[in-house]
Structures are given as C-alpha cells and as structure tokens.
Amino acid sequence: MFVTEYTDTKGVKQKLLEDANGKPLDNARSFKYTPDPNAISQNNGNDIPEIRYADILLSRAEALNELSGPTQESIDLINQVRTRAAVPALSLADFSTKEQLRDHLLKERGWEFFTEGKRREDMIRMGTFISNAVARGKNAQPFHVLYPLPQSEIEANPNLKQNEGY
Asked: Of 131, 142, 88, 145, which is closest to residue 111 (Cα–Cα)?
C-alpha cells in the first residue's frame, strides 16, 4: 500500500507526491502494515513482526545454498514462501551454481520483505550494498556498511572510537 495523500489534523487533504506548486515529489510512503485508525498521533500501537516464518524459510535456504550449492531442499523452502504468495514455483534446474541461487535469494527476500527494513542487512550480508548504491548514483564507500557512532556516545565513553571513515 502506498500513501499518496492524507488528511491532516485540520481536515485539509495533503498530497505527498507534489508540492504546493504541483511539482512532483519523490516521498511516497509505503506501509506494509496498516496503521491503527484509532491511534493518537504517531503512536499507532500496532504489533509489527520482527521475524516471520518466511524469513526462517529463506534464511535456511540461503544457509543450505552456502553449504552445498543449490539443492532440492533449498528450492522447496523457497517454494513454500512462493506458494503462500501465490507465485509460480521454482525448479532446481533453474539454478546451476551457488552464485545464481544466492542472487535469486537476494531478489526473493527483496520481494517478500518489501518495506520491512531487511534490505540493507541482506545486501550487506550478500556483499552487494556498496555496488548497488554506486549503481544508483550514490557516492558509497566501503565504510558505509557501518553507521557512524553518535558523538554523544563517544564523549560519554572514552574507550569508543569512531567507525573508520566518519
């Protein structure tokens, strides 16, 4: 679900995809889990899952692939997720190498966990975070896989050193 407009607290309809001059904006909001309509302010009180069964299945398929390359067991695990999503099943014959299945699993996780906050960690784990950012025109450097430590934390603990590059 993409939110392209909303009604503010004064009852005025606001559009997220264009400014007051009608200029398009790139700030659509995506919500996989609908906010509680009875919530007050930003405190929706929704229960958002931290881990789902699909994450366990795809993580196991990924681990099996890293250990043994494509196997029927890893494909069956992926197909459990695909069946629930009502998309066509995969075949072991679709993947002849570990790298092919690894690349597909990254795509599969991107589709399954869209807007669930897993993409960055998946791309870092798969070694594609920096190259994907550069391909999108970002000035990404290898140190960007880590966040900078807040200055207040460094000041509070003299044993902490800022992550390299920041």
From this structure: 88
